[in-house]
Structure formats: structure tokens, C-alpha cells
Amino acid sequence: MKILYFARIRQIAGRGSDEIEVPDTVTTVSELIEYLSGRDENLAAAFAERRTLRAAIDQNHVALDAPIAGAREIAFFPPVTGG
Q: Which residues, including other chains, have CB under 8 Å from residue 59's CB and lie 6 or more apart?
């Protein structure tokens, strides 16, 4: 699965993406965040403020409790504002 990081999350993580095998026990976006945080201290720091974290599965915005089964790509980014 391809994991993409944008804006502040990308800066803290130190990279824009990862390609990973997600364990079968990881079934939601929130569980994926926990899994990634446990693997990498930079990602743990990037994901520390969960209230301001947004996600998209295959380019569709989703809640953090959304299931990830069948996802090809998951992106993480801060809230988007217009102007």
C-alpha cells in the first residue's frame, strides 16, 4: 500500500511517501496511524496532533475510523483551508 504525507506531516516525517505491507490486524485509518507511529519516531511526531489530522483513501476524504480494506493509497494531511 502506498502511504502519502503532505504539508506539515511531510516535513516532520522527512519524506513524502512510503510503500508498505499493512498487517491484517490493521483495519482502519486510525489503526494504521498507530501502526506507522510504532514503526517510526518521526511519524509518531507527525501524527501526534490527531485532532488536526485528515486522511484520504484512494483520493476520497475519509474519517479516521474508516476501513482500509482494499485501499491502494492512503494520504495524510493537515486540515485544508480556502481563501
A: 73, 75
| 12 belongs to a structural domain | no
Place of cell 518521526: 42
Q: What does the DSSP 8-state code read for residue 67?
A: B
Residues of the chain with pLDDT > 70, as a percent, come to 96
Exposed (0-12), middle (13-18) or buried (19+): which is 75, by Cβ within 10 Å? buried
Q: What pLDDT band is residue 80 in, cutting at 50, 70 and 90?
A: confident
- Number of compact structural domains in the chain: 1
Task: Write down the pTM of the prediction.
Answer: 0.93
CATH code of residue 25: 3.10.20
How much is the pLDDT for 57?
A: 98
